Amino acid sequence: MKAEESNKAEEQPETAAEAAAAEEEAAAAQPETTYKSLLLSAHGGYDKVKLQVKKGSPVPKAGEVLVRVKACGLNFADLMARQGVYDRLPSLPVSLGMECAGIVEELGEGVTDRQVGDKVMVLNRFGLWQELVTIQTNHTFLMPDGMSFEEGAAFLVNYITAYMILFHFGNLRPNQSVLIHMAAGGVGTAAVQLCKTVDNITIFGTASASKHENLKENGVLHPIDYRSNDYVEEVRKVSPKGVDIVMDPLGGTDTCKAFNLLKPMGTLVIYGAANLLTGQKKNIMALAKSWWNQFSVTAMQLISANKSVCGFHLGHLDEELELITSVVSTLLDLYKQGKIKPKIDTMFSFEQVGDAMRQMQEKKNVGKVILIPDMPKEEAEKDATEEAKKDAKSEGKKDAKEETKKDAKGEAKKDAKKDAKKDAKEDAKKDAKEDAKKDAKKEEN
Amino acid sequence: MKAEESNKAEEQPETAAEAAAAEEEAAAAQPETTYKSLLLSAHGGYDKVKLQVKKGSPVPKAGEVLVRVKACGLNFADLMARQGVYDRLPSLPVSLGMECAGIVEELGEGVTDRQVGDKVMVLNRFGLWQELVTIQTNHTFLMPDGMSFEEGAAFLVNYITAYMILFHFGNLRPNQSVLIHMAAGGVGTAAVQLCKTVDNITIFGTASASKHENLKENGVLHPIDYRSNDYVEEVRKVSPKGVDIVMDPLGGTDTCKAFNLLKPMGTLVIYGAANLLTGQKKNIMALAKSWWNQFSVTAMQLISANKSVCGFHLGHLDEELELITSVVSTLLDLYKQGKIKPKIDTMFSFEQVGDAMRQMQEKKNVGKVILIPDMPKEEAEKDATEEAKKDAKSEGKKDAKEETKKDAKGEAKKDAKKDAKKDAKEDAKKDAKEDAKKDAKKEEN
């Protein structure tokens, strides 16, 4: 249940002579073992998550493995944790991070279900934004062939969340309709893909207008610009009775709107309070507003409307590993069948963690924001060689290079598109302002 | 959407000469056409539902059929309606009754999906406790071969309710656990049978001790006597984490207990407030108590516990006929496969409606309480002959007779068992009291 925080090599003496010898040998090859860790030192703004270089290497305990982390996923819970509004965190300082992907480098005592060299995805309540982590094996999931580390780091939290909301609580069935807020975000993208695995689902997705093209490509038949339109009205234009499922990561008044927008027998799943995140720091006004607007429902309201209200938070399911494991198994089958595929928005180095958080908090992302502990060229070469050993056919190296090229191209294209759209928008705004001014003058006359 | 209340033959002039002629002919054969109707004249006790004999015969409008009712089902909503705590009723006087089964006797204009002689089950918000009803065809469902009218009158409300609670809101899956309150009642019996259609469901069922043998026969592994035991404790003994689904027809504090008894990802479905029905008349104290104890839940409580709360009321789904029809179709398949079968507790004549309501309100029933409009011997013969015509092999008559015999035998046996148990219980009580007295005396000394 816990990720290794401290420098075990310094604190704990080795118990076996062999281990000590191996350690020495490793030390000889790599003169000084260090690893990067992103630590939350105090609650507050983006600058409160700091890069620290730790010495030595953590040692996996019985039942644990040591994982060299290649990519980490960013989640809303990390942002809430930074601001001090996430209650599932130990006392500070603490390393953040609920998910990562990497390679098993060492096995703790009694570990038989994982091998050195295994590529794994890791899920934990915190502590995974580090270059090296020790973790119990039942928090690790083997990555399928062809999955990149970035995809691996974008898989667990978003797809488990979307799956359990849609299929466990929502009980999504053919011919139903779903409203997905923040449909271009990590969970949103996963939810849209999962909806597409069921026949004839009408998907409404909210996102700012600049992301609509992307939403349509992903399968959102009705993208809604929540900034310029009332999304309730937009949904009712298409589906007068409302929708069968609303996925609500917003909280506050949007939750009330969602409840009213449900069809009879409809289900509202509240899984966040993104409306709280209005600034870098904990916003007392937003908190107070949210408190007053906090959604509450009575038995009578539910009965007379035939409705269902659910709350979901993966961070509170950490004792339900059996359930989680069965969901991951289903999701990996869908991945192998090509039915779902994580969408990466941007990759940031550990050093750029502030920019990464801003990207997500300001809702600029389309897909997942990823943190990469370290990716100099030599390292990439080395990783590729190690992977090649395991894969025998050295496919890994080629894939990694191609993917990097592809990502770079994709990024460039996307940026160009974004810039073009932004320009167009600004032009439109200017025109609108001028028109408004003219109208105002006319009215004065 | 509406059942025919008034005497159409008297109030509305016939529009076609043929119809008038047919009417006359019918009148000649049956010197005076009358039909029985159970009317709620005012809110209050059992005596407020009165038998009235209406003259003439209601005439089906376009899209409607005239049904000769052979059996009616009794539901909690009828009891609530009598007491004035059911808001889905038009102004008084009104004929009660949400379900019945009978034979189509006449078709309204444009009806092509039903034929004279069809045996049908009927669902409506009210108005079905009458010997003759006119009803839109989409409120009627063809009875499968071999289903008796009593079964037909016990099928729709209970099985639709149990099915939608367990499979739409509850999303019941193999290896889960369910707590069913009032497990020996109409919905409870249906729910137990439906749970048995899924692999390895752990069923907890509450009922008074005298009904436990019956619950076990039906498939309830863990019957709980809620009068002498704390059901929460009893469930936790077997399932320390709680259960996946609680079906709650009780309301008040039991709803809070149910919420706490849910596992993570568990679902509570509230579908009644039987706790309100503490006496014959509307109980102001019970209402007040229920008001103060009214269950209410916030978004934060749901999220931090990963739970779902739903409200269900079939009476509020009367505009969702397409959905209902698809559920009935699934249920009829299960019936034909022998997986579900309505359990009849007792049959009462229309004249005994007060006793019928008392049987249910005092929770004496095991299975469904049925009202029979009229069943003198001659009538039974006639019905059987008419059915024989349609069935060609005259199986109907034999079945009807055999079923009647079987029911009578079953009733007699059950009564004998009940009496024996009651005696045993009273003896046990006496013994216990005497022991207690002795103990008390000893302590005094």
TrEMBL record, chains A, B:
The keyword Phosphoprotein does not apply. Residues 1-11, 375-445 have a biased composition (Basic and acidic residues). PROSITE patterns: QOR_ZETA_CRYSTAL (PS01162). Transmembrane segments: none annotated. Keywords: Oxidoreductase. The lineage of its organism: Eukaryota, Metazoa, Chordata, Craniata, Vertebrata. It comes from the Eukaryota. Residues 1-30, 367-445 are annotated as: Disordered. This is MGC82953 protein. Signal peptide: none annotated. Belongs to the zinc-containing alcohol dehydrogenase family. Quinone oxidoreductase subfamily. Residues 44-371 form the Enoyl reductase (ER) domain. GO terms for cellular component: mitochondrial outer membrane. GO terms for molecular function: oxidoreductase activity; zinc ion binding. InterPro entries: ADH-like_N (IPR013154), ER (IPR020843), GroES-like_sf (IPR011032), NAD(P)-bd_dom_sf (IPR036291), Quin_OxRdtase/zeta-crystal_CS (IPR002364), SV-ATPase_mito-regulator (IPR052100). SUPFAM superfamilies: GroES-like, NAD(P)-binding Rossmann-fold domains. The gene is vat1.L. One of its GO terms (biological process) is negative regulation of mitochondrial fusion. The keyword Acetylation does not apply.
